[in-house]
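Example record used in the benchmark description.
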Amino acid sequence: MTALDSGVTTLVDCAHVQNTPAHADAGIDALRDAGIQAVFAHGWPCTDADCWLTNSTEPNPADLRQLREKIPGDDGLITLTMGARGPRSAVPEVTTADFRMARELGIPITMHVSGNDYVALPDEAVLLGPDLTLVHVSSCGDRELELAADHGVSISISPQIELTMPGLGLPTIERLLHAGLAPILSVDSETAAAGDMFT
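Model output (structure tokens):
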């Protein structure tokens, strides 16, 4: 509600607590009830951090396929996307398979990265594309930013949280612009940053 109260009318819900299909249904219902236009970024379960976020061999939860049937396209309020894990969270083969599933379903992908995470993506010409949005690329090298630009990747920066959360690095607007990227501004987590764009 803070977003709506401050004039934000569209948000991405990075829903990384998909323990059961019912969790996703409840999250989507809550967004509909709020009346905000939202992108529901379906992520992974919050049950066993090591299993899902440390060289994971677990594929993205299959219930994303059922969600795609419920949300076949942009219905005016809710749009579906895959909230993919950062490359250091899953083995390369799993990242590749997750991206393939999202593209088979015709949904975009959003991925939080820190450092030069996405350099580790195998066969970057296939994985990097205009349907991918990377969040927090502050510490990525210039070559990595050029690769993102070459493949039409969108970049989102969250200045307030990047200035305060260890490991994300300082916002890198000048380097993004130099690489030919036009960054999207975002808030990220309202538990650690203000929920309005003015702050």
